[in-house]
Amino acid sequence: MSELTLTVIRLGLLILLWVFVFSVVGVLRGDIYGTRVVSRTPRKPAPAGRRAERPDRSPQAAPSPRQQKRQPHSTTPRTIVVTQGPLTGTALPLREAGTVIGRNPESALVLDDDFASGRHARIFHRDGAWFVEDLGSTNGTFLGSDRLTGPMRVEAGSTLRIGKTVIELRR
């Protein structure tokens, strides 16, 4: 084997070793610092013991019987509200296509919770009802006190726990 061939093989192995080292450092950096959570809208958390007020809406009177007929069944959730955790008071309307919850900045509800996965859970509409499913998260998703093992039906008043964050489905 010529000296040139041996030198080229040594340099190739050295380059491969450095690529491996940088890959390991990148993975460790991602594990240590986690996914960067980007706040889409700055919100002040609601004071404890008080409900978050909506400045864009005035207080509403009880709906008339005619309005009640047009409204969906009372157990059908329309929004999700964070009741415990760093984002307490945050409300988000449910979307027919599905609402993904997790630490990933592309999620509909971006959690600032170390115990949440990037794509942790999904709430979706199927056959006239709302369902929640865990998306293979590490720490699991809990509906009430039960850990989700598959898609489960949810109604207004149901609570989801993802890490330290508690989310309530509301009408």
H/E topology pattern:
HHEEEEEEEEEEE
Globally, the shape reads elongated
Backbone CA Rg = 24 Å
Query: Mind summarizing the main beta sheet?
Result: 6 strands, antiparallel
Main-sheet strand order equals 2-1-11-10-7-8
Count the DSSP helices: 2
Please bin the fraction of helical residues. Answer: 10-25%
Structural class estimated from helices and strands: alpha+beta
Key features of this structure:
22% helix, 171 residues, alpha+beta
Describe the structure in your own words:
There is one protein chain. By secondary structure, the chain is α+β, with helices and mostly antiparallel strands. Helix content is 22%, strand content 26%. The protein contains 2 helices and 11 strands. It has a 6-stranded antiparallel sheet with strand order 2-1-11-10-7-8, with no helix packed on it. It has a 5-stranded mixed sheet with strand order 4-3-5-6-9, with no helix packed on it. The chain is elongated. The model is unreliable at 51-60 and 66-72 (pLDDT under 50).
Q: Strands, helices and their partners?
A:
Layout: H1 3-33, H2 65-70, E1 79-84, E2 91-93, E3 99-102, E4 109-110, E5 121-126, E6 129-134, E7 142-143, E8 146-147, E9 152-154, E10 159-162, E11 165-170
